[in-house]
Specification:
With about 300 residues, the protein is mainly alpha-helical. It has 15 helices and 4 strands. The longest helix has 20 residues. It is elongated.
Length: about 300
């Protein structure tokens, strides 16, 4: 959206104030960035203020999204994400009409489409981004748990892969950090935001062969991660999502940013002294880096 549209359609004084309050409860910038991107896309479609959204606008927008699904341009999960976020914003405005002095006839027209998109979400087995945000907040007190959740959501690693990780599996090249995952044929690029979290965790942990270990110093098993997810989803006050659902959200997000199915399939398939460094050398295969670069969302270290 150009500067003129950005100002007139989204950041007009009235909507700017509403938006500021709406996103203030998002502790992790993943959620705010995703909501903002999808809201601006909708505003580019309607070419008017969000506060002027009509039932016809939503109907036409949804019809176009469905057309893109039918033509294989979008995944159903991507459309579910967009509608859920737009509904959340619109519902917030409707619930706070009096506070923001919004006209009485303002309505949330996205709510009618929730039954449709919930079917999409069930099919995708993914976790809504607002629930991921709550899960990360709940895990802030345990850096190891926070790292595991980040690897599930941002890297798409399985529980089996996570428990086998060792610090030596991370390698720093001139063009970024790559992860050699046991039993995978190809390495994966580690986004900078994810590596910062891992690097801080590595600086705090006790020396151990495995990246993650329990209080006895032995490596974790998949049951530990399953119990971990149950504990922290309960603390977050969200449904009891599995690690696999959180992992699926990684693919969901890549699809949302137009990664191709074969690219997503490929991606799903420490202190500096603890990691081997290759000076003056670029990792030759940059495909993984390019795919990860599609995703605009970032993971933040816990506060």
């Amino acid at each position: 959206m150009d500067n003129k549209n950005d100002k007139n359609h989204f950041f007009d004084p009235e909507m700017q104030s509403i938006w500021k309050h709406f996103v203030s409860h998002f502790r992790n910038q993943n959620s705010a960035a995703s909501y903002r991107s999808d809201t601006i896309e909708f505003l580019e479609f309607t070419e008017k203020s969000f506060l002027e959204t009509t039932a016809s606008d939503v109907e036409n927008y949804y019809a176009i999204q469905q057309k893109k699904i039918n033509e294989k341009e979008l995944q159903p999960s991507t459309v579910a994400k967009k509608i859920r976020e737009l509904n959340s914003l619109s519902a917030y405005i409707e619930e706070n009409k009096e506070y923001y002095h919004i006209k009485d006839n303002y309505q949330n027209h996205f709510a009618a489409y929730l039954p449709h998109i919930e079917k999409m979400s069930k099919f995708a087995h993914s976790v809504p981004i607002e629930d991921i945000d709550k899960l990360l907040i709940a895990a802030q007190s345990d850096y190891m748990v926070y790292c595991i959740i980040t690897l599930l959501y941002r890297m798409g690693l399985s529980s089996t892969e996570i428990v086998e990780l060792m610090p030596e599996h991370f390698t720093i090249y001139d063009n970024g950090v790559y992860l050699r995952i046991p039993k995978r044929r190809e390495t994966c690029f580690v986004p900078e935001d994810v590596y910062k979290i891992i690097e801080k965790y590595l600086s705090q942990r006790i020396e151990n062969k495995y990246l993650f270990y329990n209080s006895r110093g032995t490596k974790l098993n998949t049951m530990y991660i399953s119990r971990m997810m149950k504990k922290y989803t309960t603390l977050a006050g969200i449904p009891s999502y599995s690690a696999e659902s959180l992992r699926n959200s990684c693919a969901y997000t890549m699809f949302a940013y137009d990664a191709k199915p074969e690219q997503v399939a490929r991606e799903m398939g420490v202190t500096e002294s603890q990691i081997r460094r290759y000076k003056n050398m670029n990792y030759m295969d940059t495909t993984s880096r390019a795919i990860r670069g599609l995703v605009k969302l970032k993971a933040e270290p816990p506060e």
